[in-house]
Amino acid sequence: MSLIVTLSEADEAAEYFPEMQVWHTMLVAGTYQELNWVKFEPGSRYPLHSHPYEQTSVVIQGRMRLTVGDEVREVGPGDMWFAPSDVPHGGEILGNEPVIFIDVYSPPSGGHDGSVTYF
């Protein structure tokens, strides 16, 4: 993938994971961080989980009820969150529109390496 990525390119590159009802693609993996694009379909859930890397995210489209640690808030386009390492986070997709967000992991996650814990 290029170092400059359009939203349509990210969408086209995404792989669907039916067990989680999520579209995902790792856009760029650097030495110290990783850029990801994620889309959850209406009616699905962003499962409560934690991992050993930090996560900073920005909502691009849609709305969800997000949990990060003990905090629960409704978020939508332009809203952001930070999940420190090993802090549970996830959400409920609201409405009839997919939720798309951009994640930055630091350090890079290394892909699906089994380091994610689901609750």
Characterise the protein shown here.
The chain is globular. The strands form two sheets. The chain has a six-stranded antiparallel sheet, with helices on one face. The protein starts with 6 loop residues before the first helix and ends with a strand. It has one domain (7-108): Jelly Rolls (Sandwich), CATH 2.60.120.10. With 119 residues, it is mainly β. The protein is built from one helix and eleven strands. The mean pLDDT is 94.
State the helix count.
1
- What pattern of helices and strands is seen along the backbone? HEEEEEEEEEEE
The percent range for helix content is: under 10%
What's the overall average pLDDT, rounded? 94
Which stretches of 5+ consecutive residues score pLDDT under 50? none
CATH superfamily: Jelly Rolls
Widest β-sheet, arrangement of strands: 1-2-3-10-5-8
What fraction strand? over 45%
The CATH architecture category equals Sandwich
How many distinct domains?
1
What name does the CATH topology carry? Jelly Rolls
Rg, alpha carbons? 13 Å
Derived from helix and strand composition plus strand pairing, the structural class reads mainly beta
* DSSP, total strands: 11
**What is the highest CATH level, the class?**
Mainly Beta
- Termini separation comes to 32 Å
| Main pleated sheet | 6 strands, antiparallel
Spatial shape:
globular
